[in-house]
Specification:
The chain contains one helix and four strands. The protein is of the alpha+beta class and about 60 residues long. The protein has a four-stranded mixed β-sheet, with helices on one face. The two termini are about 25 Å apart. The model has no long low-confidence stretch (mean pLDDT about 90).
Length: about 60
């Protein structure tokens, strides 16, 4: 399963739902962040993660 770090979980989930993307289960919150799961068009599960403040990985990855 692939995991994407997101900045605004609630906003993203709302947008994805409006676009017809299927969410798997409910969003879950932990001390280290929020997690949610969606399905891609082929049915593959994708994990979304919004880190809580102070739990971000330094540096990150430049996607340009």
């Amino acid at each position: 399963m692939i995991n994407f770090r997101v900045a605004d979980m609630e906003g993203l989930l709302k947008t994805l739902q409006e676009e017809g993307v299927e969410q798997v289960g409910e969003m879950e919150s932990y001390d280290f962040g929020k997690f949610a799961w969606i399905l891609d068009p082929e049915g593959n599960k994708i994990e979304l993660w919004e880190p809580s403040p102070g739990n971000e990985f330094p540096g990150g990855m430049d996607m340009e």
